[in-house]
């Protein structure tokens, strides 16, 4: 077969990142914001987009959007910003740029799968350090792994996906201090955790803070940003494809930043919905919810694959993470929806465990 001859063996052996068909289902599998924009704003956005010159390449380094991001999201003056086509692309850029011979990428497990996938694709070794049973960092094991492998990159999702918790700040400080490489704090869920390392960038030259607008309500436009010391960003920028943000994405992101209070209001609703959802789950027999700082809740049930299928049969799509890691046995991950969606989910779950 042609592909057997030309494709790398490790790529041949990979299983593809599965995006399920959600048509007709209540979509609670991918941490999307359930709210949309008011019609008047969508029409204004359409006018804005229709005025763009689609025959032209995006401008140099997306300077306007970088400045708007820096202002809107509190990037410290000492730091520089790099934009990615989603933070997935920023992960790929950082991994590729640091993939020297024998380079290691380290992350706690279970965590966001793209850290490992991008390491494998870049030819770096991936070292996963298991979390403790309560999903906190195993600090001695993490420090020992840093000592043993001297990782170029350590990824810490804050809050962590799929467990939903924020790791302890003093443990993170110890990890940053012990690392000769970079420590990337992935704040994809910052609007729901309302806790950040962004303000501490100047304290730690090896700290990178990465965020995305995906979970805030703009998953479709694919914009992520990272902030770090300018000389680091300068190097990562060489690995970035020169026109990685389309003019449509850029204009939509600028528009969204102008209306940030709307998205922040939606995040506030989602945080309130999360509290109500967790409370309802706590009183449901056969269900153990874990505390969450994100816009999803991890729950443990007796038989996760069976409950996931039963939910799907009732029109609700959640994510079965039970086979991702031994610590996640019996676990499903569910996105916080609107109050009405949460009610539908709870009803379906009660009939599915
Ligand atoms: C969803 C998620 C991302 C990916 O964000 P995009 O900007 O949509 O690529 C990054 N990190 C974590 C921890 C996530 O859960």
Short overview:
The protein has 353 residues and is α/β, with parallel strands linked by helices.
Characterization of the model:
Strand 5, helix 8 and strand 6 form a beta-alpha-beta unit. This protein has 15 helices and 13 strands. The chain has 353 residues and is of the alpha/beta class. Helix 4 packs parallel to helix 12, helix 5 runs parallel beside helix 6 and helix 13 runs parallel beside helix 15. The mean pLDDT is 97. Helices cover 42% and strands 16% of the residues. The strands form three sheets. A seven-stranded mixed beta sheet has the order 2-8-7-6-5-3-4, sandwiched between helices. It has a four-stranded antiparallel beta sheet with strand order 9-10-13-12. The site of pyridoxal-5'-phosphate (PLP) has 13 residues, from helix 5.
């Amino acid at each position: 077969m042609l592909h057997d001859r030309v494709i790398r063996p490790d790529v041949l052996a990979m299983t593809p990142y599965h995006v399920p068909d959600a048509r007709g289902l209540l979509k609670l599998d991918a941490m999307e914001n359930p709210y949309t924009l008011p019609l008047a704003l969508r029409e204004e956005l359409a006018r804005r987009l229709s005025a763009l010159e689609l025959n032209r390449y995006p401008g140099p380094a997306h300077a306007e959007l970088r400045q708007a991001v820096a202002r809107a999201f509190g990037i410290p003056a000492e730091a520089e910003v790099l934009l990615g086509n989603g933070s997935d692309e920023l992960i790929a850029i950082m991994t590729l740029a640091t993939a020297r011979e024998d380079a290691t990428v380290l992350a706690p497990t279970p965590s966001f799968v793209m850290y490992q996938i991008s390491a494998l694709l870049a030819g770096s070794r991936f070292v996963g350090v298991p979390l403790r049973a309560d999903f906190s960092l195993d600090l001695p094991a993490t420090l020992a792994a840093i000592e043993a492998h001297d990782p170029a990159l350590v990824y810490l999702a804050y809050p962590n996906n799929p467990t939903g918790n924020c790791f302890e700040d003093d443990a993170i400080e110890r990890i940053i201090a012990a690392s000769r490489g970079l420590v990337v704090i992935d704040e994809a869920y910052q609007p729901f955790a309302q806790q950040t390392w962004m303000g501490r960038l100047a304290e730690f030259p090896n700290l990178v803070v990465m965020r995305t607008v995906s979970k805030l309500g703009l998953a479709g436009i694919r914009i992520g940003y990272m902030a770090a010391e300018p000389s680091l960003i300068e190097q990562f920028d060489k690995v970035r494809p020169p026109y990685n943000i389309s003019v449509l994405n850029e204009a939509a992101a600028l528009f969204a930043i102008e209306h940030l209070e709307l998205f922040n209001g939606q995040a506030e609703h989602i945080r309130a919905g999360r509290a109500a959802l967790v409370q309802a789950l706590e009183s449901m027999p056969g269900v153990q919810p874990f505390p969450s700082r994100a816009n999803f809740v991890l729950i443990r049930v007796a038989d996760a694959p069976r409950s996931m299928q039963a939910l799907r049969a009732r029109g609700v799509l959640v994510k079965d993470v039970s086979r991702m890691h031994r610590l996640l046995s019996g676990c499903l991950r569910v996105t916080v929806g609107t109050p009405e969606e949460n009610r539908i989910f709870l009803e379906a779950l009660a009939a599915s465990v």
